[in-house]
Amino acid sequence: MSATRVAFVTGGAQGIGEAIALGLAADGLDVAILDVKGKEELMQSVVEKIAKTGRRALWLVGDVTSEQSIKDSIAKTVGELGSLDVMVANAGILQVGAVTELSVEDWNRVFAVNTTGVMLCYKHAAIQMIKQGRGGRIIGACSVAGKHGFAHAGAYSASKFAVRGLTHSMSQEMKAHNITVNAYAPGFIDTPMITAVDEKMGKEAPSGAKTASPSVVADLVSYLAKPESHFINGQIITIDGGEVLD
């Protein structure tokens, strides 16, 4: 088993995932990133940036909605990098549109990635961390839309509310294993996902809503991944400039 801690980041090719991967590498972790087919060049670029920090890195094509894909990707990470100490279930998609226009297919797709994908990452990271017997950090992607529903984001919001419940439950189950389970709930972050739907989603943004770079989320994840964060568990931490208050 590797003496260096190892992180696994889904959706790591760009945006928040890339920032998280680079941040964890800067903290001294080796990092595996996973993303979908078609993003190989983006992932290779991230891995090259990580290599320049002196850390080992690995990129994997995978599907967070497939249990076998997640199992295989974690196994490959452990095989090549030595362990799994930090799981960041970051991958997500955003479907914009009124609920009255929402198809069951689109609803299921959003839940498959945003909720089932997070569950599978939580599940198989926990299995590996329990096997290792030295604790760990499991961190998931929620959203301010998981605390406050926004118009034209019904499926997305519902999927992120589900991540809150999953994170709360999992955090209680993992206490005995010295594994913390938390989630981050970003607001409007400047990412390719938000840019792609800016024309529609921008109309629904709160008046004067603040935006920030992915680095603000990465910095939060960096702390949650540290051994020093052991007393933070079961929390869904909003990071949105104060737009949505718990």
What's the topology here?
Blueprint: E1 6-10, H1 15-26, E2 30-35, H2 40-51, E3 57-61, H3 67-81, E4 86-89, H4 104-132, E5 136-141, H5 154-174, E6 179-186, E7 188-189, H6 192-196, H7 198-204, E8 211-212, H8 215-225, E9 236-239
Parallel strand pairs: 1-2, 1-4, 2-3, 4-5, 5-6, 6-9, 7-8
Helix pairs in contact: 1-2, 1-8, 3-4, 4-5
Write a brief caption for the model.
By secondary structure, the protein is of the alpha/beta class. Helices cover 46% and strands 17% of the residues. Helix 1 packs parallel to helix 2.
Structural class: alpha/beta
How confident overall, as mean pLDDT? 94
The sequence of SSEs as H and E is: EHEHEHEHEHEEHHEHE
Number of extended strands: 9
When the domains are counted, the total is 1
Distance between the termini: 40 Å
Strand content: 15-25%
Shape: globular
Question: Can you tell me the CATH architecture?
Answer: 3-Layer(aba) Sandwich
Helix content: 40-55%
Biggest sheet overview: 7 strands, parallel
Output the strand order for the largest sheet.
3-2-1-4-5-6-9
Give me the oligomer status.
single chain
What do you see in this structure?
- It comes from Irpex rosettiformis.
- This is NAD-binding protein.
- The protein has 246 residues and is α/β, with parallel strands linked by helices.
- The protein has one domain: Rossmann fold.
- The protein contains eight helices and nine strands.
- It has helices at 15-26, 40-51, 67-81, 104-132, 154-174, 192-196, 198-204, 215-225, and strands spanning 6-10, 30-35, 57-61, 86-89, 136-141, 179-186, 188-189, 211-212, 236-239.
- Strands 3-2-1-4-5-6-9 form a seven-stranded parallel β-sheet, with helices on both faces.
- Strand 5, helix 5 (154-174) and strand 6 form a beta-alpha-beta unit.
